[in-house]
Amino acid sequence: MKKKYYAIYKPFNMLSQFTGAENASLLGDLYTFPKDVYSIGRLDKTSEGLLLMTNDNQFKNKVLSPLDKIEKTYYVQVDQEITNQACEELAAGTIQIKHNGKTHQVAPAKCIKIESPNLPERSVPIRFRKDIPTSWIALTLKEGKNRQVRKMTAAVGFPTLRLVRFSVGALTLGKMRPGDVIEINPNEVIPNWNEK
Question: Locate the Pseudouridine synthase RsuA/RluA-like domain: which residues (predicted)?
Fold first, then answer.
């Protein structure tokens, strides 16, 4: 089996899978992937950004393993002007979210306020309210529970409006555009992977 590794820029409103309802937007719409290639983790339908795909289970498990703590950075547009206190709370590792019906205390993270990042426009624009500002943060996590970022920002009072995964490990979106698919070397994500 030839090991294959891909990075895709998952567009808004696309499922992170190959099968779905007849009119659903699916990964197979972007590219003809080999039959044994699947996504490493997922992004919600309404989330965008970097999604890795491979047929190398060892690599997939390494990226997903909570023990290896590979960082993923998200650019998050939130409702209102986020406060320093909310950023500190997001980073502190004290927030509790519901996951699979249980309470989960999130791990410490990194959170910084950023200027509006240079991202492609979303296919469906964020609703715009003239009197209510929005702001952006870069949130870096070492775990990835279902809808975790959205649950975390809601917990501190700043609901997520737009969510873009910018990086996984050492690999970033770079100059990719929504819908792009590129073949990558796993060393771009985990340096020295091929030497293991």
Answer: 5-155
